[in-house]
Amino acid sequence: MFKDNILIEESEPLINSSKLTAKEETKSIFKINEINIDHSKSKMINRNKGKYITILWEKSDISSCVEDLIEIISNKIKELTETLKIDKNKKILFCGLGNKEITTDKFGYLVIEKLVAGNKLYKIYKDVEGLTNINSVKFIKAISDMLEVDLVVIIDSLKATHIERIGTTIQISTGGLYPGSALNEVSKEISKKTLKKDVICIGIPTIINMKEVKKENPDLLISKINIDHYVDDLSSIISIALNRMF
Fold first, then answer.
1. Residue-wise pLDDT tens digits, 131-155
2. Start-to-end C-alpha separation, the chain
3. Which residue in 96, 95, 31 sits closest to 231, CA to CA?
4. H or E segment to which residue 32 belongs
5. What is the largest CA-CA distance in the chain?
6. Cβ–Cβ contacts within 10 Å for residue 166, how many?
7. 7-245, what's its fold?
8. How far is CA 167 from the centre of its chain?
9. How confident is the model at residue 221 (pLDDT cuts 50, 70, 90)?
10. What ranges do the domains of the chain cover?
11. Which residues, at least 6 apart from 142, have a Cβ–Cβ distance to it below 8 Å?
């Protein structure tokens, strides 16, 4: 199982065959897709239980619709926190994952840098295990236990199947993720199961496997030439949405 695959891409065949139900709505230029994965569907598609919200758009220039996107993100995260019974009296830890030295993996770092901590809100950036030799799951669990938080919000880069998803997709879910699984299939999950805390994950796709373009290159990861702009812009939009909400 890969933490960094966009669920909407994997689930399209099941939705088309009526084995999976998706709720869809459109606001401004954005399409919002919501899928609830229960226990039976979890086994069927090899994904953790939870709600998966995908915000999609087609044109890369969304400068005229930024406020609409910020509102959508805020509203969807608010819906999740209300479902999880997380109110303003609860403690929340925001944790960015990735490698800030690599453009395609610095999304988590950038969002954390732009977030405002204070009161019962905490933020931390965790670099990849290959650089720190510190397991991400154990690290986050230790910090969240020490702070006695009620919710952990994980921010990380994701992997897509289709190149057009890069720069035009945001995924928000309660199903957890698998840090580093683009390179390591045995990566351990970060989820409510492992942290014993409610979890919300926020990510954007920044890479795809080259095998989607040329099957003779299955291990090569590629991105878009202007990925730095997408990562910076979307990290700003998401951090604004989070700052306004919390």
1. 778 888 999 999 999 999 999 999 9
2. 32
3. 96
4. strand 30-37
5. 53
6. 24
7. Rossmann fold (3.40.50)
8. 13
9. confident
10. 7-245
11. none
